[in-house]
Amino acid sequence: MNRREYLKKSFAGAAVLGAASLGLPANSFAAKVAADTWHNGEYVLPELNYAYDALEPHIDAQTMELHHSRHHQAYVNGLNTALSRLAEARENDDFSIVKHWSRETAFHGGGHFLHAMFWEIMSPNGGGEPRDTMLRNAINRSFGSYVGFKRHFKAASNAVEGSGWGIMAFEPNSGNLVIHQAERQSDLTLWVTQPLVMVDVWEHAYYLRYQNRRGEYVDNFMEVLDWDKVAEMYEAAASGR
Ligand SMILES: [Fe+2]
């Protein structure tokens, strides 16, 4: 097995980020975006459904071309590189720079997924207010009115500090919609993932028992981690229940 084959196998075996391993509802938009850009063990740049000049005059053709072919491609490349380095780290059992590649995975992965969805939600025939009754009801329920949503979304997007995104998202517990400001692409996470295992490493979670020995705390967390529960969550997410 050569290195490339190993890395592909390693991705699949470790269930890192492949569409089948995202833990997303199978019919969700994010899952579709992920699946559409995952080919032969790596992520690829999705094609646009329209020409670069199709969104003129609102978004100019040159911006679209640079944004898609250069910027988005760079995120795809960065994500693949980061995943490859993490696979090497596992192969060599050397996690000395795992922090760096984890950040790179989050940054480029966030960039890739957000752009892939961004292209999908734009259209030359777009604009106006939502017509779908379910979506209108959700917006009214969540923001009071369409105008309320629009004012909130614009204000939040305009006020993102530095580079980043304004995002309206589905919050599955309440069934409501929420608006995020995402500085850069993410805060060390990917917007399309659904958390399955999480450990709180704020000092409030371990200081009384472990003081500054966070590693010992995490070791002990693994001893109480309920994998049956994690499996239950995963199966529910993957089947869209
Ligand atoms: Fe962008």
Automatic annotation (TrEMBL):
Pfam families: Sod_Fe_C, Sod_Fe_N. Mn(2+) binds at residues 67, 115, 200, 204. Gene3D superfamilies: Fe,Mn superoxide dismutase (SOD) domain, Iron/manganese superoxide dismutase, C-terminal domain. Its EC number is 1.15.1.1. InterPro entries: Fe/Mn_Superoxide_Dismutase, Mn/Fe_SOD, Mn/Fe_SOD_BS, Mn/Fe_SOD_C, Mn/Fe_SOD_N, Mn/Fe_SOD_N_sf, SOD_C_sf. Residues 134-232 form the Manganese/iron superoxide dismutase C-terminal domain. It is an enzyme of class 1 (oxidoreductase). It catalyses: 2 superoxide + 2 H(+) = H2O2 + O2. Residues 1-30 form the signal peptide. Keywords: Metal-binding, Oxidoreductase, Signal. Residues 42-123 form the Manganese/iron superoxide dismutase N-terminal domain. GO terms for molecular function: metal ion binding; superoxide dismutase activity. It comes from the Bacteria. Belongs to the iron/manganese superoxide dismutase family. Destroys radicals which are normally produced within the cells and which are toxic to biological systems. This is Superoxide dismutase. It comes from Cyclonatronum proteinivorum.
